[in-house]
Amino acid sequence: MAEYKIKDIEVLTGIKAHTIRIWEKRYGMLIPERTDTKIRTYSDADLSFLLNVGLLNKKGVKISKIATMGMNAIHEKVAEIRLNSSVDNAEEKLILALLELDEQLFRNTLNDLIDNKGLEATFAENLIPFLDRIGVMWLVNSITAAQEHFISNLIRQKVITEIDKLPIPTRANESILLFLPEHDWHEIGLLFYQYLLRSKGYCTYYLGQSLPYDSLVDCIERLKPTVVLSSWLTAVDQHFIVGYFKQLANDAPDVKLLAGGAQIHTHSEALQGLITEVKNPGSLLALFQ
Predict the structure, then answer these.
(1) In whole angstroms, what is the distance from residue 111 CA to residue 7 CA?
(2) Do the first three CATH levels of 6-161 and 167-286 match, i.e. the same topology?
(3) How far apart are CA 199 and CA 121, in angstroms?
(4) How many Å apart are CA 20 and CA 277, to the nearest integer?
(5) Alpha carbons 140 and 160: distance in angstroms, whole number
(6) Domain ranges for the chain
(7) Which residue from 23, 152, 146, 142 is spatially nearest to 94, judged by alpha carbons?
(8) What is the pLDDT along the chain (289 residues), one digit of tens a residue?
(9) Among candidate residues 103, 238, 189, 81, the one with its CA nearest the CA of residue 92
(10) Among the CATH numbers 3.40.50.1010, 3.40.50.150, 3.30.70.20, 3.40.50.280, which is that of 167-286?
(11) Residues 14, 88: contact at Cβ < 8 Å?
């Protein structure tokens, strides 16, 4: 069972720590465990309860009323709300879908967001914060690898579906080849960049996960892209990543190298002069204006 600090709960539920403390003191809604140094800790059950409370409160149910409701009544009321997939409680729904492995809830919520805002805004405003929340839950051992894979693959499927709706751009003056280096399988961000570039009419070649270096060089020679874009999330040694891009610059001297991800940011100083760092979707598009 995971143990969350109150700041973790704040990140995961969106409820301010100060508010949680007031609810505890005024309404007795939670009785958190305490460490030997009197620091509050919360369980998975506490997290799920607060997500449900936050959902009801956003829908207009007063905290004083929620405090008098039994758990069955809270669950029944939440179930009613979840039948109506609306964007104003999307964050709680996404987390609940993760905790409960509820594919239908996740799909309905994500589809509703995309229908209302489009994939580009949904990714920036909802999915990136959601993935950050998953990161917190992973660090405190709150979710299993199976839960993380379950949700990640649902997001991946949806992005691919949205890409498939776009026309295939014709080859123009500029073309972008996208890939993940060998042993890196975290492609959600790169898939979104593929969608973003395609939606703006850029010619792209998507080579996907864990691409061997020799195959990358072969594809560059065959396709002759003007830009190569990669994402690096799996931990790597600085000597390796610097050597990788030095070799790629030597093997593909006419190609502009772009890269993003946690490992690029971590080693950004050592990579200066070798690549252009992509920090977010906006910075990527700015490079093509």
Answers:
(1) 30
(2) no
(3) 13
(4) 39
(5) 30
(6) 6-161, 167-286
(7) 152
(8) 567 888 888 877 888 889 999 998 888 888 888 888 878 888 878 887 888 888 788 778 888 888 888 888 887 777 676 555 455 578 778 888 888 888 998 998 999 999 999 998 998 888 888 887 777 676 566 677 888 889 999 999 999 999 999 999 887 778 999 999 999 998 999 999 999 999 999 999 999 999 999 999 999 999 999 999 999 988 889 999 999 999 999 999 999 999 998 889 889 999 999 999 998 888 898 988 7
(9) 81
(10) 3.40.50.280
(11) no
Task: Kindly report, residue by residue over 165-199, the tens digit of the pLDDT.
Answer: 999 988 777 899 999 999 999 899 999 999 999 99
Neighbours of 276 (CB within 10 A): 18
Would you say the pTM of this structure is higher than 0.85?
Answer: no
Which residues sit opposite 175 in a β-bridge? 203
Token output for 154: 């649902």
- Helix H or strand E segment including 20: helix 17-27
CB 113 within 8 A of CB 90: yes
Which CATH number applies to 6-161?
1.10.1660.10
Q: How many CB atoms lie within 10 A of CB 205?
A: 17
Q: Which amino acid is at 171?
A: R
Whether 202 and 175 have beta carbons less than 8 Å apart is answered as: yes
Identity of the amino acid at 145: A
- Number of neighbours of residue 92 by Cβ within 10 angstroms: 26
Q: Which amino acid is at 59?
A: K
Exposure letters 165-186 (e unless 16+ CB within 10 A, then b): eeeeeeeeeebbbbbbbeebeb
Q: Are 190 and 159 in contact (CB under 8 A)?
A: no
